[in-house]
Amino acid sequence: MLPITSKKAIHNSIxxxxxxxxxxxDLILISRSSAQEAEAFRPDQSSTPVAAPxxxxxxxxxxxxxxxxxxxxxxxxxxxxxxxxxxxSENRVNHIVSxxxxxxxxxxxxxxxxxxxxxxxxxxxHGNYELQIFNSFGKKxxxxxxxxxxxGFSKPLVNASKKPGEWQVYDIRYRAxxxxxxxxxxxxxxxxxxxxxxxxxxxxxxxxxxxxxHPFRYGTTDYLKKIWKQQLATSVGPVFLQDHGSPTxxxxxxxxxxxxxxxxxxx
Length: 267
Fold this sequence. Notes:
2 domains, eight-stranded antiparallel sheet, five-stranded antiparallel sheet, single chain, 2 helices
C-alpha cells in the first residue's frame, strides 16, 4: 500500500495532466474556430466597387447616404464625384453616424486616403472599436496606429495599404460583445477584417473600449448619449465614419446584418 503522501502526489500529478490536457483542447478548439471563421468569411476584393449582396443595407452609394451628424442632424461632409469626403471641424470630432443600428454584421467600406494629415480616419464600429484608416503605404514596421489595426487592441497582421489616391477596401466581420443587465461584458466581441485582399485581423477579440477619443466619450452629444444608453442594454449600435482632419473619401458603404437585430434608429 502506498503511503498517503505518495497518493497525494499521484493525485496532484493526475490533476495537473488533466488541466494541461483541457487547456490544450481549448486552444485547439479556439484555433479551429478561428480557422473556420476565416474560411467562412473570405470576401472577394479583387476589384472595386463591390456590389452590395442580397440582404445588405446600403449606407452610402453614388446617389444617397444613410448618415447623420453626431447631433442627429444633416451631415456637412462634402459630396464630390459621387463620394463623401471627410470634412473636418475645429475640434476633430465631425464624425458621421449611421441611421441603421445593428448587433453582429459584415461591414463593407471603400475609401481613398489623402496625403494630407497622414490620411487619418477610421471606421468606428458601435462607436467603440476602430478599424484604422491611415497612410501606412510602404511602412516596414506597423503598429496599432497603422491602417489595418484594431486601434488600441491589435496591430495588423500585414501591411496591406495602398498608395494615397488609390481606392482601397475593408470587409469586416464584427460580432458585438454581450453584456448582462448591469452592462458588464459577459462575452468578448470579435473582429475579422480583410483589407485590399489580405487578412489584417483574424478573429481578434476585445472587451471594453480603450480609447478616450471615441465618439461616445470625446465630443459626445445628447443624441449620442441616448444611443449609448440603448447600446449598453442591447449590444446594438451604429457605425461611424471618422473625421480626423484628413479629407478621406468614402464610397460604397454597406452592412449585412448577421442576425435579426438591425433596425432604423429614430430619435
